[in-house]
Structure formats: structure tokens, C-alpha cells
Amino acid sequence: MTFFNNRWGYLIGAVIVALVAAFPLLKGTMNANLHEFFLQQITYIMIFGLLCMSLDLLVGIVGLVSMGHAAFYGLGAYLLILLTPQYSTPSILTTIPLVLGGVAAIALVIGAFALRTSGLYFIMVTLAVGQMFYYFFNDSKLAGGSDGVYLFAKPTLEIGGRTLINLESKVQFFYVSLGVLLVSFAILRLMLESPFGKVIRGIGINEYRTRGLGYDVYFYKLIAFVIAAVFAGLAGVLGAVQYGFVNPSMLGWHMSGIALVTVILGGMGSLIGPVLGAAFIEVIRYALEHATQHWLLLFGSLIIIMVLAFPRGLAGLGEQLAPLFRKSRAGAEAKPLPEKVDA
Amino acid sequence: MTSMTAHGDPAFTARQPVLETRGLTKSYGGLVAVNNVDLKVFDGEPHAIIGPNGAGKSSLINLLTGHIPPTAGEIMFGGRNIAGLPAHKVARLGIGRSYQRTNIYPSLTCYENCWLAAQARRHHSFSFILPARRHDDLHDIVEDALVRAGLGSRIDAVASKMSYGEQRQLEIAMVLATGPQLLALDEPLAGMGREEAEKVIQLLVSLGKSYPLLLIEHDMDAVFSIAHTMTVMVNGVVIATGPVAEVRSNPMVQEAYLGDLREKY
Q1: What is the per-residue DSSP string for A214-270?
Q2: Could you tell me the CATH number of the domain that includes residue A57?
Q3: pTM of this prediction?
Q4: Which residue is closest to B112 within chain A, CA to CA?
Q5: CATH, range B17-94+181-265
Q6: Per the structure, how many domains does chain A have?
Q7: What range does the domain containing A144 cover?
Q8: Which residues of A touch B178 (CB under 8 A)?
Q9: Angle (nearest 5°) at CA B120 between A270 and A121
Q10: Which residues of B touch A202 (CB under 8 A)?
Q11: Rounded to whole angstroms, how far apart are CA atoms B177 and B188?
Q12: In whole angstroms, what is the distance from residue B174 CA to residue B145 CA?
């Protein structure tokens, strides 16, 4: 809750959103292929950012470290394809709610078991569940096995015979992804201010006391788990639509691991931090990949340095650096603020 | 739920215990931590449980508040046997418990700490949209609890930045905010300096007038100034119980516990 809690945070956020939203307008100013490539990359960052934001609800707020969160991302993608009748166009109004309902139902069952454990055991159980889904889709003929499966047509929103949104258009899909990300962020922020949000935050800080106060923490954790899964599923739907293709790697532990690293790098518990983290990781990955073959080595080192230097992540960067600026401005007069005197 | 302070007609309520245990036992394999304990807590008669380390005091309070299930015995509270209920259900029934080791939300303010406590009074908190601060029926409860615990001027202080003594007060404020019908306080003075302790003793004396109070405490002076009734435990067994003055002069207690203490300090 550091980045967006002050005026500067909101201002910076608004500027970033405005810049991102303006990107498609730059089409004429650069090579068309390059523009399309960047458009695609930014869209992917937003989708991956949504996945990381949903994971942050578990890791940063409730204190549940899940190593299988990508399972719900992949399930969202696979269910979109499986629930769309063959050779037809999925509808945004009916198919997608159905997909998210399916993800929620599966998350409810998994959560009901996984949340019987905690700490290291929870990590292990979620890892195992994620891998079960991975191998299920990898080995079964249901959805193309290890080759993956194509989405026949991209979802559309039609009302009264008129097509309002057609995700075949890359620009429309870009704006839809941006909209979904912003609305998801708003919903989660609102939820964190609600009584439910206060309780799950309390569980994250001190679960034992929260139980002692009279909350059945199991159910609160379960609901939070389902909510996080649904947003991950939503990201998965977008992920499937973006490339029109789904394969088992979307569900694997590798994906879950990268999302977890991104959450930590971006700043746990801030919701927006993981989105910044997603952008950071994708940009660095792109830059390093083109610079050297051994980019993973550099990538790993950089992440370690970042985590050591900025334990509160990118979202906490402003707060962490603010005292430096304050000190240099106030010069020798700088001294700690007086303790708040009793009013 | 209204906060019941049970100040009815003393003649009517006087001998009806708020909390009663019958044969309460907890054993871990061969070790019997709490052995066949019968305990009665009455309103208006603050009840202290004392005993040397390892006497089973903490196990007892953990049993009473559902943090551990008993091996045998009954815990009668509010007209029913609550033995074996999980901690969150016991808390909902009205046993407000504070902890020996400070157990708060360090990164939240006093107000937020107590808010979470007060919100626990609600049937549930599965409310997702309306911001919590708009649920302003809880606001007065939170403020009242903080004022009663002596933190009226520290409402917006972040818990981790307060002194240890204040954190202990917050611990009590949180219990009050849950709207308890019985206070079960586990060494509320643990680790406090003399001055801080004095303040909290005053607080406990005044709380003892409005709530049925069960207290586990090491500090003898505190026990003598707060409690009306005293129970002495040694090795999981109750060796004496009754009015403070009476138990104090009990030779067995002098031998087993008080004498011991005098040497220690």
C-alpha cells in the first residue's frame, strides 16, 4: 500500500496509464512491424501483470505463498477453448463468465484441501496441484496434449446483431486488456478496504490473533483463494486470446515461479507493484536476451541484487528513496520527525 | 450483540458462576499438564490463577479459550459446555482473551487493531464492497475500547512504534472491542516495568468492576490488589482456591508457592 497511497503515486500512475493508452496512436511514427511487436509486448505485460496482481492478493495480503497459481491462469485459458463449441465464436457475455465460474469451482475444491495446510506445506501442496494440472493437460488427448490447442475464433461482444468488441483486432484487444487490468485493480483495492479485506489483511499480519478474535480464518482464506484464482483465470482467458493458442507450459510450475518472483520484485501487498514488476521483468528480459546468450545468468543476478537493495520492491521504491531527497533538501537541519504528541 | 456487563441484582447473580470447569484435564502422553481442575469464575469477583512456571496456567487458559482441546472434562459457559469448540467459536461466544506474549497487528494503527477486533462481533465479515470505515456502528465501540484501555490519545499511533506497556494496553483494548462477556487475561503485566505495571493494574481493577475477570499472573502485588478470588496451581493440580486473604495464609500455599517466590526474588 505504498505506491498509490499518496498524491504522487496517483499522479505517476495516471501518467503511466495515459502513456500506455496512447501507444497505439504512435502507429505512423515507427516501423509498422516494430509497432505491432511492441503493442503485443505491452499487451502481454498487462496480462502477465494481472496474473501477478492476483497472486499478490495471496502472497502479499493473506500471506499464502502459492507455487501453483499459474494452474488457474492455464485453466482459464484451457476452459475458454474447451467450453467454446467447435468452430464457433466464444461470446464475451456468456462464455467468459462460464469460464470464470469453472475456475472458481475448481479453486474452491483445491483451496478446501490446500488450506488445511500452512507454511511450507501449503507451498508444496500448491506446487503439486499445479503439476497435476500440467501433466493432465500434457498427457491427455483432451486438448492437444503437449502440442497445445488453437482457439478457433477470438471472443466477440455482440448486442442486437452488432459487434461492439472484436478481439481479432490487436488494438481493440490492447485496450480491452488495459481496461480489464484497471478494473481488476479497482475491484481488488475496493475489496481490501471492505470488512472482508480488513480480515484477510489481518490474517496476513497475524493469523493466530485473527482466529483468537473470533474469525474463522479458514473460510476467509478460502474465499480469498477463490477470488485470486478467478482473476488469474481472467488473465488466462486474455492470454489464450492474445496468441490464439494454449499449451501446457501456461500451467506449469515455471510460470508460477516467475509470477512469484515478479510479485516479490514488484512489492508484495501493493497490488500495483507486481504489475510494475511484470513490466520490469519483460523489459529486462528483452534487453538481456538481445545482448547475450547467457542472459538468464545476468537476469538471475539482477533479480537477486534488486531484492537485496529494494526489499519492499518497486512499489516501495518511492517511499524508500524519499528520505534521501528530504535530507538533501533540508540539509543540516534534517532530523527525525517528533513523535506525535498526544492530542 | 450488546456488551453484557452483568450488573444485575447481586442477590440473584451472586452465586451463579459465569464460567465453570468440571474435571478439566489435558494430558500430553504421560504428562498431565492440567489435572482434573474445577474452577468457578463469578461476576464481580476477579479471579486470579497463580502458580510457578510449568504449573499448567497457560495450558488452562488455552483450554478455556479453545486454543487446545481438552482430554477430558467440561467447560460450562453461557449455559453450555464449550469444551472442544475451536478458538474462533469460543471468542464469538464471549470469552475475550489476551495473550502473554504481545499478540497484536504491529503494522496497523491502534484504531485498525481494535477495528478488526470490533468487526469480529458481526455475524460475518463477508462484505466485499462498502469500505469498512463506512460501517460506522463500529466506530464508537473502537473508540470506547481504546479510551477504556487508556489509549484514547494514541488512536492513530502505529502499534509497532509504541512502547511495550502501550502495546500491552492495546492488547487489552482489542479484547474489550470484541464485546466480551468474560475477560481471560494471560499475564497482562508480563515484562512490564514498575511504572507501566502500576498503570495497567489500575486499569485491571476498574475492568474487574464491569466484567467477569479471569487473570493469570505472576506478579503477587498485582494479584493482591486486583483479585478477589485466587486459585493456586502446582504441577497441573489446584492446591488451593478461595478468597485472596484466605489462600494467602494457607500453609500449603505458603510452602509450595509463596515461600518459593520469596526466595526467588
Answers
A1: T--HHHHHHHHHHHHHHHHHHHHHHHHHHHTEE-GGGTSHHHHHHHHHHHHHH-TT-
A2: 1.10.3470
A3: 0.86
A4: A198
A5: 3.40.50.300
A6: 1
A7: 7-24+31-321
A8: 213-214
A9: 55
A10: 105, 108, 116
A11: 16
A12: 7
Please check whether residue A104 lies inside any domain of the structure: yes
Which of B128, B158, B162, B182 to mutate to probe the A interface, most A CBs <10 Å? B128
Does B135 contact A195 at a Cβ distance shorter than 8 Å? yes
Q: What is the DSSP string of B151-187?
A: -TT-TTSBGGGS-HHHHHHHHHHHHHHT--SEEEEE-
Query: What average pLDDT values come out for chain A (343 residues) when binned by 10 residues?
Result: 59 87 82 87 95 95 93 94 79 86 96 92 94 91 79 76 78 91 94 92 93 92 97 95 88 92 90 92 88 84 86 79 62 42 38
- Number of Cβ within a 10 Å radius of residue A80: 27
CB atoms within 10 A of CB A168: 14
The amino acid that residue B210 corresponds to is S
- The domain locations on chain B are 17-94+181-265, 102-179
A100/A233 Cα distance (integer angstroms): 6
Rounded distance, CA A285 to CA A266, Å?
15
- Answer whether residue A130 is part of any domain: yes
Chain A positions touching B67 (Cβ under 8 A) are 212
| 0.85 surpassed by complex ipTM | no
Residue A159 lies in a domain: yes
DSSP code string of A111-170: HHHHTTS-THHHHHHHHHHHHHHHHHHHH-TTTTGGG-EE-SS--EEEETTEEEEETTSH
The answer to whether position A147 is within a domain reads yes
Higher pLDDT, B55 or B264: B55
Are A343 and B153 within 8 A, CB to CB?
yes
- How many angstroms separate the CA atoms of A52 and A256, rounded? 9
